[in-house]
Each structure stands twice: as structure tokens, then as C-alpha cells.
Specification:
Length: about 300
């Protein structure tokens, strides 16, 4: 089974780009701009994309828009890069989205953290099992933000569903990640640092081989420079990139990540690549705070 998903596993060990979803002046998904931004990522060297990720405002899109984003992505990138489609919400909705992704020819699905005030360990396994069993021919990547989840439960899920091949781990605790990965099986899964470039060096030192990125929408070369340094074991080089992106990521993380997507779209808007609009509960950056973001974006080789 591992050999069956070898290509998908290899694809995850990289910069996993989370594209933004650009909106037109009337508030609809801007399809032409979406395609242009995807082409820019591919031209910049990106080899795996996640339509309907959090940087794509997954929870602010309608079911029809999520389908559209998947369709646009598959149509635009074709077989040139791996496609990891974000799915979630209730089980029937997540399963339907996963089946839609499979029908279009996507390679994998990422299962968003269950949005529910009461998540039991057994229930977490049941939720992911239902989705993974519906698409046994697709690689499945749980998105873990739950610090209480035990690594043994992930191993249990993979015992039942061998198509669970990777993990997007997004608990901001490198020591917990190191323990969780080893309890689940360090070599059994591809570990993706789900908190992007700021956490990538510490998570790579503990076993991650890929990291997610929203920043890559703005400056693909910056993200690729970091992973190349990490792959070669050049941690001083990786930390030089970390210093380069520090302020941008601090702005995204401020106030409980309130402006996480807002900052990315503001940077893209400053470069004339898309509109800055985001949907509630996010909000565009106030005019007085835009200059700093524009200066950062202008300072990168984009």
C-alpha cells in the first residue's frame, strides 16, 4: 500500500502551497485571477497545491464555490503538480467533496480539523475513517490542530485506512509534535509542518519533511529557498530565510491570526495581482496599515 501511494507521499514532502481564493468586485470568485495566480505558483516552482485550504478561506466559501475552486484548480494545473483538495464540515459534506475531488482526478484530500465543540478521540477516528473509506484510492491527509489527540489514535486510523499517508500537524509545540509523530509512527506518515515557515525549522528537526505555506502566494522563491536549506540540513541558511519573513508572519499571527489571510491578500494587492477583499469573519487591512505589508512584499524577489 505504501508503494501504491509513493508518488503522493513524495509530493507531500515539499512546500505545500495553499492558494488564496480571489474575489471579483461583485464578491464572486474571480475565476480568471484564480487561474493566473495558480499559473504564477507553478511558474515559481511550486509542485503541490491545496485548493480549499484555510488561506483559500475554506469556511467562508459556499459548497458550490468550493466545488468551483476545485474544478478551476484541476483544470488549470492538470497533471503538472500534485493536487491536495481540502474537505471538511459534516461527514456527508466532506465525503461528497472527496468524491468530487476523485472524479476530477485530484490525487489527495486534506481533511480539515473537525469544527465541533465536542471532539472525542474515538469520534475523531470515526470522522476520518468515514471520509478515508469513501475514497480508498486517494491519499488522505488529516489536518491536526487538536493538542489533545494522541498519536496512537492516528496509528489506529491508518490501520483501518492505509490510504491515510500524511499529516498536516498544526499544534504550535515542537516537542509535542516530536512525541506525537513517534507515537503514531515517524516513518509511517509524511509529516507536514502545518504552521508554515515560522515553525518549519523546528518541525523539520523533529521529523517533518514538508511545510504548508500561504506566503508562497506572494513570493514562491522565498518559501522554496527555505525548504532547500532544510533538505540539505543547512539550518543557519533556513533561519536566514526565517528572519527575512519574520515580520510578515508576525503580522499574520497577531491577535489570534485575525489577519492571517488578510495580510497575504494585501501583499498580493500591493503587487497588482488580485483584489484585497476577504470575507467575514476576516476583514481587509485598514488603509493606514497597508504600507508596511507593501514594503515587505516589494523587498522580496518575487
Amino acid at each position: 500500500m505504501t508503494a501504491r501511494f509513493e508518488a503522493q507521499r513524495a509530493a507531500l514532502a515539499d512546500v505545500v502551497a495553499i492558494p488564496v481564493t480571489p474575489f471579483a468586485e461583485d464578491g464572486s470568485v474571480d475565476q480568471d485571477t484564480h487561474r493566473a495566480l495558480l499559473r504564477r505558483l507553478l511558474d515559481g516552482g511550486v509542485r503541490i497545491v491545496t485548493p480549499n485550504g484555510n488561506t483559500g478561506e475554506f469556511y467562508a466559501l459556499t459548497p458550490q464555490e468550493r466545488q468551483l475552486v476545485t474544478e478551476l484548480t484541476v483544470d488549470e494545473v492538470g497533471e503538472r503538480v500534485a493536487i491536495l483538495v481540502g474537505v471538511g464540515h459534516d461527514v456527508p459534506t466532506a465525503v461528497q467533496s472527496a468524491l468530487h475531488a476523485r472524479e476530477l482526478g485530484a490525487h489527495m484530500v486534506m481533511v480539515h480539523q473537525p469544527v465541533h465543540p465536542y471532539v472525542s478521540q474515538d469520534g475523531w477516528v470515526d470522522y476520518h475513517r468515514a471520509i478515508a473509506e469513501a475514497v480508498p484510492d486517494l491519499g488522505v491527509v488529516p489536518y491536526i490542530r487538536n493538542a489533545q489527540l494522541l498519536g496512537a489514535r492516528l496509528a489506529e486510523l491508518a490501520d483501518d485506512c492505509p490510504n491515510v499517508i500524511g499529516v498536516k500537524y498544526a499544534v504550535p509545540d515542537a516537542a509535542r509534535f516530536a512525541a506525537f509523530a513517534r507515537d503514531a509512527g515517524l516513518e509511517r506518515f509524511v509529516w507536514v509542518a502545518g504552521l508554515a515557515e515560522p515553525y518549519a525549522p523546528s518541525y523539520f528537526s523533529a521529523g517533518a519533511t514538508g511545510f504548508t505555506s500561504g506566503l508562497v502566494n506572494v513570493a514562491p522563491s522565498v518559501s522554496l529557498n527555505m525548504i532547500e536549506a532544510l533538505r540539505s540540513g543547512d539550518y543557519p541558511g533556513a533561519m536566514k530565510v526565517w528572519e527575512q519573513i519574520r515580520r510578515f508572519e508576525e503580522l499574520r499571527a497577531a491577535n489570534g491570526s485575525a489577519n492571517n489571510v488578510t495580510i497575504v491578500k494585501e501583499a498580493l494587492a500591493s503587487l497588482g495581482l488580485c483584489r484585497r477583499e476577504v470575507r467575514p469573519p476576516s476583514r481587509p487591512l485598514p488603509e493606514g496599515e497597508r504600507a508596511e505589508v507593501a514594503a515587505i512584499a516589494a523587498g522580496w524577489s518575487v
